[in-house]
Design brief:
The protein is α+β, with helices and mostly antiparallel strands. It is built from 5 helices and 19 strands. It folds into 2 domains: 131 residues, Roll (Diaminopimelate Epimerase, Chain A, domain 1); 132 residues, Roll (Diaminopimelate Epimerase, Chain A, domain 1). Helices cover 18% and strands 40% of the residues. A hairpin with a 2-residue loop joins strand 1 and strand 2.
Length: 280
């Protein structure tokens, strides 16, 4: 079989095309990424992920992440769990250190079919997210229809978390792009509509930057718990229910955010050489 091999995986329906370039380098243009991610003419995915050799001596590998629109992004929690599962299987170990554009993340096999990823510290200062100007990130002065008064958080990537009465009633398809591209967010932002179900349970729907509505967003779930705790709505631990399933999130006292959830492999394949030829 000719062509580049890949594995298709997902975390709660948030799906990825993953390439292993730890031995053989892989160079991708934004046009190539968009073609591979296309669900009609390519493989289809929310994000494309490349496993590469680490740039530091402490990490086991580097994870490069592209959104479906071709743009490279800093972090992806569900992808981190998938890549961690692959790397732990390759190395026959129960933990790995993954280097990303947003920093190093540590992942562990829980032994129960789940993977826990330490996403690092939550960033809550305006210039860490970043926002275009200094302001209180606990109450950000933007609105789009019923979405008002969000909390801004970065989990290696920017999020605007809106608390709503009923998450299902929010028209994310139309409101998500308005918030994503608001001038307050120079790098654009992910958008979460979050409903408080109980002091330890949240319902979250998400519009992902550069992708659109997805079944799950790991960093979004982390951001939602951080925002809810900062608002006094929850403790430091909660289950976050997404369209694709449930993630367990903990914001520890040392400020690090832990995410636990399942991973699944869908299929393996090879890209036909002709697929990308005209986009090189």
């Amino acid at each position: 079989m000719t062509g580049r091999s890949f594995i298709k995986m997902h975390g709660l329906g948030n799906d990825f095309v993953i390439f292993d370039a730890q031995g053989t380098p892989l160079s991708l243009t934004p046009a190539m990424v968009r073609l591979i991610a296309d669900r009609n003419s390519g493989v289809g995915c929310n994000q494309l992920v490349v496993m590469e050799p680490p740039t530091d001596n402490d990490s086991d590998l580097y994870m490069r992440i592209y959104n479906a629109d071709g743009g490279e992004v800093e972090a992806c929690g569900n992808a981190a769990r998938c890549v961690a599962a692959l790397a732990m299987g390759e190395r026959d170990t129960n933990s790995v250190l993954i280097e990303t554009k947003a920093g190093q993340v540590e992942a562990h096999n829980t032994g129960t079919g789940m993977v826990t990823v330490d996403m690092g510290p939550a960033r809550i200062q305006w210039d860490q997210i970043p926002l275009a100007s200094a302001m209180d990130t606990l109450h950000v002065d933007i609105a789009a229809g019923p979405l008002t008064d969000p909390v801004a958080v970065s989990i290696g990537n920017p999020h605007a978390v809106f608390f709503v009465e009923e998450a299902e009633a929010i028209d994310l398809e139309n409101l998500g792009p308005q918030v994503e591209n608001h001038p307050l967010f120079p790098l654009r932002t992910n958008v979460e509509a979050v409903q408080l179900l109980a002091p330890d349970k949240l319902r979250m729907r998400v519009w992902e930057r550069g992708v659109g509505i997805t079944q799950a967003c790991g960093t979004g779930a982390c951001a939602s718990l951080v925002a809810a705790h900062r608002r006094g709505l929850t403790g430091r631990q909660a289950d976050v229910i997404l369209d694709g399933g449930l993630l367990e999130i903990e914001w520890r006292d040392d400020d690090r955010v832990l995410m636990t959830g399942p991973v699944a492999a869908t299929f393996t394949g090879h890209l036909h050489p002709d697929l990308l030829a005209e986009h090189r």
